[in-house]
Amino acid sequence: MLTIYHWEPNANSGKPILAAFEKGVEFDSRYIDMLAFEQHAPEYLKVNPNGTVPAMIHDGVLVPESTVMMEYIDGSFEGPKLRPDDPFERWRMRWWCRYFDQVIGPSISMFGWSFFVGPAMRTRDPEELKARIERIPLKERRIAWSKAIYGTFSPEEMAESGRRIAAGVEHLEGALSERAWVAGHSYSIADIAGFNMMAGLPLMNPQVVNDTVTPHILEWLRKINERPAIRRSFALGRTELVKRYAHLDRRSGAAAGGDHA
Q1: How far apart, in whole angstroms, are the C-alpha atoms of residue 98 and residue 30?
Q2: 7 and which of 34, 87, 99, 216 could share a cystine (Cβ 3.0–4.6 Å)?
Q3: How confident is the model at residue 136 (pLDDT cuts 50, 70, 90)?
Q4: At the topology level of CATH, where does 87-252 sit?
Q5: Whether the predicted model's global pTM rises above the 0.90 cut
Q6: What is the largest CA-CA distance in the chain?
């Protein structure tokens, strides 16, 4: 029995969900409302004491960390392969997963927290928010939630995140100009990781990711957005967050272009 505890099907939560759907693996979906701080509730802390989302339970055993979850799913279940057979391409897959997790991802998350999570939380009762923050188990998550809610990311932090995003985007655009998928000739875990991290960039950073400057990234994002597993993944969302992906729909005519304010 496979159970995935997740928030909206994007970013880290989207990775094991999409991997499971790509493999054709059925799982028990447990939605954790992060904006209601359900990830810090006593019931969830019994599942994952760190209070982070996503979490995955397979036959009673906790499998943490979203990128590792994808490799675990690919190695544990039958279905289409999500890891290249070629050793170099498999190394490249892991290299890019690490790059998304450690370099681009945290910077994109800072923008996401500033533009989406923070504003959504600031309408709540201040005393309630303070109490919720104090109950977060991990110190680094308490700091991140506090900065997001109160909008206290420094200009220097935002500037450095912007620089890292721009550098990462340039690097990825170059890679995708040479091959169809991030790791090489086949769709892999690296593409799932990258999509979940970067699909919102044409909206958050349109001057950095658009059809004029990064045509290969936009084409890559649209190809993934058209996969049936994405549709199934989006169906698990409960907020308006999935509308952030509308710009990738070729049929809508709303794809991100080069002229954004």
Answers
A1: 26
A2: 34
A3: confident
A4: Glutathione S-transferase Yfyf (Class Pi); Chain A, domain 2 (1.20.1050)
A5: no
A6: 54
